Please model this.
Amino acid sequence: MKVFINPGHDIDYDSGAVSPRTGLRECEVAAHVGALTKHYLEAAGCTCELMQSDNLAPTSKGRSVYADRQGPTVTETANDWDADIFVSIHCNSAEADEACGTETFAYDLDGGDGEKLAKCIQNQIVGAIGMDDRGVKADPGLLVLKYTSMPAVLVELGFISNADDEELLTGCQDDFARAIARGVTDYEQMLMA
Ligand SMILES: [Zn+2]
Model:
């Protein structure tokens, strides 16, 4: 299975959420978890491509704001590579610091492969790390879900704005990566069953 991994945001151009306590940056957590996920998926026999960029789709602001960065976008690259599935990795953030837990988005909840993949990954993260289960949700407005031509999910590992979640996002990156990889292989086995 060809898995396209997209750590959210951009190390140079877009930090994503930032912890008010420690300065932990979402882009760094996503990059580390993404690289580890690639490692575990390759060990499980998958072929992986990894790309982190704020340049997500032809309509996204990255392309127009940074005139020197007119290269292929994340979603175009995934489509051209002919990925079987697409996994975007993010951290959540909220005004209310008690908000916590994991949620995974699919383009829609129609019982299709995107929703199935989202459920497999969500179940593994909640089960393995004990994150609060915020469930699988639909968001057709997310660019990486809207412009990809294969089953695609965006996983919000936990809240960088919540002290307990942040501790896990810092200390359990390997566990998050293993859980995502197991979610992908669960999905793969579901397809073959
Ligand atoms: Zn994000």
The CA atoms of residues 97 and 162 lie 5 Å apart. The domain at 2-192 is CATH 3.40.630.40 (Aminopeptidase). The chain has one domain: 2-192. The pocket of zinc ion is lined by residues 8-9, 16, 26, 90 (CB under 6 Å).
